[in-house]
Design goal:
single chain, 640 residues, alpha+beta, OB fold (Dihydrolipoamide Acetyltransferase, E2P), six-stranded mixed β-sheet, four-stranded antiparallel β-sheet, 34 strands, 21% helix, lipoyl, acyltransferase, transferase, E2/Pdx1, pyruvate
């Protein structure tokens, strides 16, 4: 069967595109994913891949032509399939949509999107659009409208999670919401119906809903009972006046989070923006704000529980709104699943029940403790697994640790032969380093830098500086400027391309009580040395106080690891996954250097660069490292 390929929306704001290169001709065989056009949008020139395989029957556009999104560009079909000229003419005129048999000129999708028969002519069905070239399905993570709402064209009606991002979906139609056809958490294919809109007095019959959804049970239900149609299987519909708060993706790489602090309880009133949970990710402990206001109906998670992104955490609603047990069970069962054994096995209470004994966990077992309690325990040399929470409390807090220290009830620091539990940050660091060694083929470059002039410059600058400038601040500045000259060193392999960073963020490896964290200096190339010093001082303070945000930890192009303060001459650092390289900085040492027949004592520092060979070659990395060396040896150029 022949199929027309339309111009996809290659960006959220894209309305049209210009054909700058046609890469196929009539008769060519194309596979799914083959690049068939190059299209220029208002922001970039992008490749359009074929969403189907077959033989090119007709190219419908010309080089240099500007066409709107969803305009047919190409017809593909079977090798010996004949294409009716009327079909080609109808596509060229922009009348057809979707997949159409060539001998027909009717619009098959029109029966799904437009009313037919006795249905109200104002009704229109809104379907899930293809929000990206490779998108095949999406998960509804937020429903922003309800039946009866008036919406305008362009209003955001859903938040949809694809395989790459969470995006806002705008309404292509205006009117009043008559039916919402999807549920929170439901995953649906592209072009699945999501919403029915129409005139304020329009009536939606069960037959019309069934025609749109393909669910005949809807029509049968409406014929046998009064009231709106409901699904006969799958998740229970969200009650009126109720909203489910789910775990958001607090960072690009976040897949799950651990609830370390529940700050509200059932019956509490929350405002939009109130902090309701503390969530520990693979990078930091962060505050989670409420996206909605109302009364807390039920807390669905427990302290210490690890949940995937988009899992329900909380139910909020209007005062007086009721939440059925069936709805709660459907949330706990997950999207698209029926709750099992709901009657024989009672659902857990909203808040964690008091333990029968106020005792700490078994040695080496899981410890439920606040971040502050863990920090104090490490500072005091206390094994937190020996500390007990107060009777009835769900976890250990700072006061429990301090009480244990004062009473002498806590164990002393680890001794030889003892088994020390590995904390979460250590586990994450270990996993990342293993990933690096497994997936990143590295090579290593070392050079010696004469820091004599920079030592003098720094000493003079700090005489009047409001914030003391460290050697690291100068190194960050030199690295940032060097990345400007050698942008390939910001790259990451992405399929057949090397994707260069849009902005230069430099990571800084910082030792903390739990292990190692690498926050980033944002836009380091846009800051002078004094600004870098001020930024890095604040960043280090916040990191050591466990106050960094996920944004502080993401986007680094390169990381600097400095062990010079520990007297380390040189070392080989491990590249952070997601970055191209890492720079190891050694100590500055007095070294005898021959010069013109004399022996001079100079301040010499060792630099070691570990580089991902998938991204950069030896020559490129050597030039990059040499540029850093020259910048540090001629420090007057750093602020130019």
């Amino acid at each position: 069967m022949a199929r027309d390929i339309k111009l996809p929306q290659l960006g959220q704001t894209m309305e049209e595109g210009t054909i700058v290169n046609i890469l196929v001709s009539d008769g060519d065989k194309v596979e799914k994913g083959d690049v068939i056009f190059e299209v220029e949008t208002d922001k970039a020139t992008l490749e359009v891949e074929s969403p189907a395989e077959g033989y090119v029957k007709k190219v419908l556009v010309k080089d240099g032509e500007t066409i709107p999104v969803n305009t047919p560009m190409l017809i593909v079909g079977e090798k010996h399939e004949e294409i009716d000229q009327a079909y080609i003419d109808s596509l060229a005129g922009g009348e057809n949509v979707g997949k159409i048999e060539p001998q027909k000129t009717a619009e098959p999708e029109a029966t799904l999107a437009q009313p037919s028969g006795d249905a109200d002519p104002s009704l229109k069905t809104v379907k899930l659009p293809q929000l990206g070239q490779t998108m095949e399905e999406g998960t509804v993570v937020n429903i922003l409208v309800s039946p009866g709402d008036k919406i305008a064209k362009g209003d955001v009606v859903f938040e949809i999670e694809t395989d790459k991002a969470t995006l806002e979906m705008e309404s292509p139609a205006e009117g009043f919401v008559k039916r919402v056809l999807v549920d929170d958490g439901e995953t649906i294919p592209v072009n699945a119906p999501m919403l029915i809109v129409g005139a304020e007095d329009a009536v939606v019959s069960g037959e019309y809903v069934a025609a749109q959804t393909g669910d005949q049970a809807v029509a049968e239900t409406e014929q046998t009972q009064q009231g709106p149609a409901e699904r006969t299987s799958g998740p229970v519909k969200t009650p009126e006046g109720i909203r489910v708060v789910r775990l958001p993706q607090l960072g690009q790489t976040m897949e799950e989070g651990t609830v370390v602090n529940i700050l509200i309880g059932s019956g509490d009133k929350v405002e939009k923006g109130d902090v309701i949970f503390e969530i520990e990710t693979d990078k930091a402990t962060l505050e989670m704000e409420s996206p909605a206001e109302g009364i807390v109906k039920m807390v669905l998670v427990e302290d210490g529980e690890t949940v995937p992104v988009n899992d329900p955490l909380l139910i909020v609603g209007e005062d007086g709104a009721e939440v059925s047990q069936a709805f709660v069970d459907s949330l706990r069962a997950g999207p698209g699943e029926q709750a099992v054994q709901a009657e024989s096995k009672p659902a857990p209470e909203a808040k964690t029940q008091a333990p029968t004994q106020a005792a700490g966990p078994a040695k080496g077992g899981k410890v439920f403790a606040s971040p502050r309690a863990k920090t104090i325990a490490q500072q005091q040399g206390v094994d937190i697994s020996t500390v007990s929470p107060k009777p009835g409390a769900p976890r250990i807090v700072a006061a429990d640790v301090l009480a244990a220290v004062q009473s002498g009830g806590a164990q002393s620091p680890a001794v030889l032969g003892e088994r020390i539990p590995v904390n979460r940050l250590q586990k994450i660091t270990g996993e990342k380093m293993l990933q690096s060694k497994r997936d990143i083929p590295c090579f290593y470059l070392t050079t010696q830098v004469d820091m004599t002039e920079l030592v003098k410059l720094r000493s003079k600058a700090n005489e009047s500086a409001s914030v003391k400038i460290s050697f690291n601040d100068y190194i960050i500045r030199a690295v940032a400027k060097s990345l400007r000259h050698y942008p390939v060193m910001t790259g990451q392999l992405a399929g057949d391309f090397i994707q260069l960073a849009e902005r230069i963020h430099v990571g800084l490896a910082i030792a903390v009580e739990d292990g190692l964290i690498s926050p980033v200096i944002k836009d380091a190339d846009q800051k002078d040395v004094a600004q870098i010093a001020e930024y890095s001082k604040s960043l280090i303070q916040r990191t050591k106080a466990n106050q960094v945000t996920l944004d502080d930890l993401e986007g680094g192009c390169i990381t600097i690891s400095n062990l010079g303060g520990f007297g380390i001459h040189s070392f080989i650092p491990v590249v952070v996954p997601g970055q191209c390289s890492i720079l190891g900085v050694g100590s500055i040492e007095d070294t005898c250097v021959p010069s013109g027949g004399n022996i001079l004592v100079r301040k010499i520092m060792s630099l070691t660069l570990s580089v991902d060979h998938k991204v950069a070659n030896g020559a490129e990395a050597a030039q990059f490292l040499d540029f850093i060396k020259k910048m540090l040896e001629h420090p007057a150029e750093l602020d130019q």
